[in-house]
Structures are given as structure tokens and as C-alpha cells.
Design a protein that fits this description.
- There is one protein chain.
- The protein has 564 residues and is of the alpha+beta class.
- It has a domain at 38-157: Carboxypeptidase-like, regulatory domain (Immunoglobulin-like, Sandwich).
- It has helices at 3-35, 90-95, 185-194, 265-274, 292-299, 319-326, 361-369, 501-520, 538-562, and strands at 38-46, 51-52, 55-60, 101-103, 108-113, 116-121, 124-131, 139-145, 150-157, 168-175, 199-207, 210-213, 225-227, 230-237, 240-241, 245-250, 278-281, 307-312, 315-316, 332-335, 350-354, 373-376, 380-385, 393-396, 400-409, 415-424, 427-433, 440-449, 453-463, 479-484, 487-491.
- It has a 19-stranded mixed beta sheet that branches. It has a five-stranded antiparallel beta sheet with strand order 4-5-3-7-8.
- Strand 7 (124-131) and strand 8 (139-145) form a beta hairpin.
- Helix 5 crosses helix 8 (501-520) and helix 8 runs antiparallel to helix 9 (538-562).
- The chain is globular and about 80 Å long.
- The protein starts with a helix and ends with a helix.
């Protein structure tokens, strides 16, 4: 090939490369134009008020990738056991929060909105779901985003049931969400409104040598924050040990802590009662790993406890609660998530309290104290016995009939409740199946009562479009569960519940728990209970041993008097 031919070919090749480059740039520009992002202005409206309302939002592309709004609510809990209390400014506290939520039940990314949200999105189609607690229907919609265009979408949230209209208000009794400064209140309140939690109890927690985790800026009335019928309140998960269990106090006027006598729980319960607060044990659904059966065995005879947290992590474990009721000891059932120590969602497990008159924190506490509650992760319960309601007492002059009326209602788009069951003294009395695709199960029948007793209602089934999640137990599916507080029936002339042969049989395992704890407190064994990092070293336990053993002896005497 001569020089002229070579030069011509090189020029031709160079020209071709230029053409290819121009074509590539053109395609890139076209691709850029086609891929130019669009925006979505999302507004969530409550159909009843016609006003924007906080909600939890899920927006997925065809590959299942989730998108988060630029103005999403910052959220986050606090389950860290710190040696020293956090000292956060408002700016630092917000910086530690996240706008993104990974939902373990749907396996999707979601976010919280105050009711108006702005998202910048690649063009394409999306699936939108909007959630607001358990009383609102989930809204679903297809969304199309065009290149460079702005879309506006309004989603209207409608209830399938309105429990506050009937005086029932939802609560989570177990949230670890820090409030080191009061300026965080509006953010947390909107978050709780998005889950439709009317009473959010934010628990500061501790161990023997510190009580400053999930720090709250104030206890008592100063720690209350209100927006409409949504309340934030400071509570405490303290006392809290690995061998006596975790206690919860709600409504205390000031922090309650006894570092020098931390394992004497009675001191906490007595102080709570002096302050008009409620006391109970946490985590009962996931016992016995947290040791609460030993603590409860000591404390039941004193009559200072008000409630037992019987629903958590989608698990309702009622057996020990039934036992306490059959001993004649009335404890109100409550529910809570332990968020974020359990990676759940606030209000996933909740309980409803019947409030008489306007909702205040004091009227809510009184409803819990009186036993007007039911626990649930979705279904809504109604229950009456001879026109008496939850927590109340039917008095019969002699053995005879009572009228039992019960109903469970649920959203068939989210729950498949299979059975409604009436419980008498912890045993199944009657069971009623769901009929077809009905969104409720109800019953009405006459029951002959022979002795002083208690009745309650429970429901169970499975959740739809959700996967099972529990860090403590293997679940085949995500269950749908609810259980009411009891209605008590007194038959005049009949022995009380504590005098029934059933109570005498139940006393024996409680005695066995106490005897086991006594052995663990023996001087040559007590070192195995020690937790020096929590202020519960061997020397500390030895100093507390005598008083703890006296409390055990007192409880043993109570149960021994019950047993045959």
C-alpha cells in the first residue's frame, strides 16, 4: 500500500470514528433526555377531616427498589446501654435519625410522611402503598412518572373502623425513643400519628448502676406532649434484671430508682403507687428468657402490680397471665413492641383502652387501672357479659345463666381471622369460625355459671401480604391475634378464685420458682447471678441477699397457704 492510499484510509478511519463518536454522543444525549428525572408531589388526606395526615409510605419500582421522600420524617429509636447519659442538642439528635425504614414484615423500604411529600424519581411506573395504623385501610395505586415532568397525587385514607368514636384509644406501652430535648416532640408525635398510636409511652430504661438510657427530658406532667388526641408520655423500664425480669412503670411524677436496693422490686412498685402510677412486667409474651417468672412470683402476693404485657413480637402468650387471674389476682393485659430493641414498628402490637370522658393521660391511666383493655396486632374486639363490659363484675345471687356477647372485626384486606373464642378461667369455653369471606365473627349465647369465675374473648388467624418475623420463635406465618381483658363473675356464697382447687394446684409451680431462686441465691451459687457491668456484682448481691430472701419467704408463705 502506497503513502497516498494509507493516508486516505487513515482519514477514512478517522472520519468513521468521528461519526461513531457523534452517534454515541447523540444517543447519550437522547438517553439523558429520556432518563431525566421527574418529581412526585404526594399528599395524604384523612377522608374524615379532609386535611393532610401523617402516614407510612411505600413506593417501589418494578424491581422492588424503594424510594424515600426528600422531606421524609426523621425517625429512630435508642436501645443503647450507655455508661454516661447522652448530651445531645436538637441538631445532633436529628442527625442521628434516619429517613428510611426497612420493614421486616413486608421486606420493603418505606418512609414516614407528615402528609405531604416530595420525591425525585427516574421516569417509569411505580407501585404506591400508604399505611396509617390498623384502623385505616391500606391505599394502593399505580404511579407513572414522565421524564422531566412533575406529577401531583392525592391519596385519601379511609377507616374500616373508628374506635376513638366509641371511646377506645390505642397505645404502645413499650417504646424506646429518646427525647433529650423537648424540641423533638413534634417529630415524634407526627411519627406516632402516622401509626395512629394515641398514647405513646416512651420508656427511659436502666440497670442498677445507671438509669439514663433512652433519655427523656422530663418525667411527669412536664414530660407530656399533646397534639389533638395524640399523647407522648414518659415512662420507665426500670427495674430491669436478668433474673427477676423487666418492670414497667407508667405515669410516675418523677423518676423512680433505688440503686442501693435495685433487686427489691417492691420498693419501686410502692413508690409508683404513691405517685399514682401503674406498675407491671414487660416481655411476658417472650418469657421465660428474661427471668420475669421469678420476679412475678415474689411480687404477686403484694397486690402492687397493675398489668402484664402479654403481646409482643406477634406472639400472644397468655398462660401465666391466666394463672394469675385464676389465683384471684387481677392484672390488666397490655401490649408493646419494645421498639427498636425488637426491630419492629411502633404500634405493631398495641392495646386499646376504654376511656370515660375526654382523652387525657390521667383518664387513660384510669382505664388501664380498671382493666378496660384489649390487646391486638390488628383485629378489634367487643365483649359483654350480662351487659357488663371489660374489667367490670357481674354479681349473681346464686349459680345461674349469664348472657355472653362477643364480636371480632377486622380488615379483610389485611387479616384473615379464623376463630373467635370465649375463654372461661383459662379454658376454651366456645369457639366460633369465620363464615366465608365475612369481615367479622360474632356470637351470642347463654352460659350457666356455677362458681365465681372470669370470662374473656380472644381471636386468631393470619395476616395477609406479610411475612412472619420473630427473633425469639419460628413462626410459619405472621399471625393475627387479639385478646380482651376479663369480665369477672361473682357468685354469692361461692368460694373466691383463690380458694378454688384450681388455684391450689397452681400454687405449687409458683412455690417451685421461688425455691429455685433461693438455691441460686445461696452463698456458693450467687456469683453466677452477678452482672458487674450492670452494677450487680457478687458483693452487691450478697449485700442485698438477706432482704431478697425475706421477700421470697413472704411470697412462699402466701403460696403455701393456697396449696393443699
Amino acid at each position: 500500500m502506497n503513502g497516498a492510499s494509507l493516508s486516505k484510509n487513515l482519514r477514512s478511519a478517522a472520519f468513521s470514528r468521528v461519526l461513531i463518536a457523534i452517534a454515541f454522543l447523540g444517543l447519550s444525549c437522547l438517553s439523558f433526555i429520556l432518563q431525566k428525572s421527574g418529581t412526585l408531589n404526594l399528599t395524604v388526606i384523612d377522608s374524615a377531616t379532609n386535611q393532610p395526615t401523617p402516614a407510612r409510605v411505600e413506593l417501589l419500582d418494578p424491581q422492588g427498589n424503594g424510594y424515600v421522600a426528600e422531606d421524609a420524617l426523621p425517625i429512630g429509636g435508642d436501645c443503647v446501654e450507655r455508661e454516661a447519659p447522652s448530651n445531645l442538642t436538637m441538631e445532633r439528635a436529628i442527625a442521628l435519625l434516619s429517613k428510611e425504614l426497612h420493614n421486616l414484615y413486608t421486606k420493603t423500604t418505606q418512609f414516614y410522611s407528615v402528609g405531604e411529600a416530595l420525591l425525585t424519581l427516574p421516569p417509569g411506573s411505580y407501585k404506591l402503598k400508604v399505611y396509617k395504623g390498623t384502623e385505616y385501610q391500606v391505599q394502593q395505586q399505580e404511579v407513572q412518572i414522565e421524564p422531566g415532568a412533575s406529577a401531583a397525587l392525592t391519596v385519601r385514607m379511609s377507616r374500616w373502623i373508628n374506635l376513638p368514636e366509641q371511646g377506645w384509644y390505642s397505645a404502645d406501652d413499650h417504646l424506646h425513643i429518646a427525647r433529650p430535648v423537648p424540641d423533638l416532640n413534634p417529630f415524634i408525635s407526627k411519627w406516632m400519628q402516622a401509626e395512629d398510636i394515641h398514647v405513646a409511652n416512651l420508656l427511659q430504661f436502666g440497670v442498677a448502676n445507671r438509669f439514663h438510657n433512652t433519655l427523656q427530658y422530663a418525667h411527669g406532667p412536664r414530660g407530656l406532649y399533646r397534639e389533638g388526641d395524640y399523647l407522648l408520655a414518659t415512662g420507665q423500664e426500670n427495674p430491669r434484671t436478668h433474673f427477676l425480669g423487666h418492670g414497667i412503670i407508667l405515669g410516675a411524677a418523677s423518676p423512680i430508682h433505688f440503686p442501693e436496693a435495685y433487686v427489691i422490686y417492691r420498693l419501686f412498685w410502692e413508690q409508683a403507687r404513691r405517685q399514682g402510677a401503674l406498675s407491671g412486667y414487660a416481655h411476658w409474651a417472650i418469657e421465660p428468657k428474661l427471668g420475669g417468672q421469678s420476679g412475678l412470683a415474689i411480687d404477686l402476693p403484694d397486690g402492687l402490680l397493675n398489668f402484664l404485657e402479654v403481646l409482643q413480637q406477634d406472639i400472644g402468650d397468655y398462660s401465666v397471665w391466666y394463672d394469675t387471674l385464676n389465683l384471684g389476682i387481677r392484672l390488666t393485659p397490655t401490649a408493646g413492641t419494645d421498639y427498636p430493641c425488637t426491630p419492629s414498628l411502633p404500634g405493631r402490637e398495641r392495646f386499646y383502652t376504654k376511656v370515660r370522658g375526654p382523652l387525657t393521660y390521667e383518664s387513660w391511666l384510669e382505664g388501664v387501672r380498671a382493666g378496660r383493655t384489649f390487646v391486638t396486632n390488628g383485629p378489634a374486639l367487643e365483649f359483654r357479659v350480662s351487659d357488663k363490659e371489660l374489667g367490670e363484675e357481674v354479681v349473681l345471687e346464686k349459680p345461674g345463666p349469664v348472657l355472653v356477647e362477643a364480636r371480632v372485626r377486622f380488615d379483610p384486606g389485611r387479616e384473615a381471622v379464623e376463630r373467635l373464642e370465649i375463654i372461661e378461667n383459662g379454658q376454651l369455653l366456645r369457639s366460633f369460625p369465620r363464615k366465608g369471606e365475612a369481615a367479622e365473627i360474632e356470637c351470642r349465647f347463654t352460659h350457666e355459671v356455677q362458681d365465681t369465675s372470669w370470662l374473656a374473648v380472644r381471636a386468631w388467624g393470619r395476616k395477609l401480604a406479610e411475612q412472619a418475623y420473630s427473633p425469639t420463635r419460628a413462626l410459619i406465618y405472621s399471625p393475627s391475634v387479639a385478646h380482651s381483658a376479663p369480665i369477672y363473675i361473682q357468685v354469692k356464697g361461692s368460694p373466691g378464685l383463690s380458694a378454688h382447687p384450681r388455684a391450689k394446684a397452681l400454687a405449687r409451680p409458683w412455690l417451685a420458682r421461688l425455691e429455685d431462686l433461693e438455691m441460686r441465691l445461696a452463698e456458693d451459687q450467687i456469683r453466677y447471678l452477678a452482672r458487674p457491668g450492670q452494677g450487680l456484682g457478687t458483693d452487691y448481691l450478697l449485700r442485698s441477699r438477706a432482704e431478697l430472701l425475706r421477700a421470697i419467704q413472704s411470697a412462699k408463705k402466701y403460696f403455701a397457704n393456697l396449696s393443699p
